[in-house]
Amino acid sequence: MIFRIFATAVFVVIIVGSIWFGGQQREAAAPTPVATSPTDLGYSARRAVLIETGPDGLPMYTVNADVIRERSANNVDFEQVQMSFRDQGGQTWTARADHGELGQQTGTVELTGDVHVDGMLPGSPDNVDLSSDKLFVDSRADIISTDEAVTLNWGGRRLGSHGMVAALTQRRVLLESDVHGIFSPP
């Protein structure tokens, strides 16, 4: 009989002790909020398409990328990017690069790594290829620019420069410095 009373008392002490110590551990292990950093991802996607439309509902630009990542609320990064956009004259331009970055609400895409932009310059019957290691494409202002070395190839002509601003709506290309060119007869 004493053995049963002793076994019951030990059993009750174990249960009360488990509840008592278990409750204290839960309080000590309360979850703490995790601080987010500006480098936290918002979203990411593979083989994705990003389209921004203008006030008329037509696409201002389309970005196809192997990988798209939103980095906080400030920008979107692209890997192996191909971009198409229409200038105000209706001409379609295409761009490709290893990497790209789009600033939120800016309409400006920074392309880096083996960048090529192809299209027709207004008033020219020939296709032009702009190549550089870094180019900025402002689809809202129809401006392509760079502070890096750039090469323009079109219709048997080749121009190289350090820095360029191509204002597509104004039909102007400004080569900034160290300009070199080769013009072949047509």
Question: Can you describe this structure?
Answer:
The chain has 186 residues and is mostly beta strands. The protein has 2 domains: 32 residues; 143 residues, Lipopolysaccharide (LPS) transport protein A like domain (lipopolysaccharide transport protein A fold). 15% of the residues lie in helices and 59% in strands. The protein has a 9-stranded antiparallel beta sheet, with no helix packed on it. It is elongated and about 115 Å long. About 3% of the residues have low confidence.
Helix content: 10-25%
Structural class: mainly beta
The total beta strand count reads 9
As for the number of domains, it is: 2
Say what the CATH topology of the largest domain is: lipopolysaccharide transport protein A fold
- Gyration radius (Cα, Å) is 30 Å
Gross CATH architecture of the largest domain = Sandwich
Alpha-carbon distance between the two ends: 116 Å
CATH homolog superfamily of the largest domain: Lipopolysaccharide (LPS) transport protein A like domain
CATH class of the largest domain, named: Mainly Beta
List unreliable stretches of 5+ residues.
32-36
- What is the helix/strand order? HEEEEEEEEE
Molecular shape:
elongated
The spatial strand order of the largest sheet comes to 1-2-3-4-5-6-7-8-9
Number of continuous helical runs:
1
**Share of β-strand residues:** over 45%
Q: What is the typical, i.e. mean, pLDDT?
A: 77
Largest sheet at a glance?
Answer: 9 strands, antiparallel
Concise overview:
Helix content is 15%, strand content 59%. It has one helix spanning 2-28, and strands spanning 41-53, 59-71, 75-86, 92-103, 108-120, 127-138, 143-154, 157-167, 172-183.
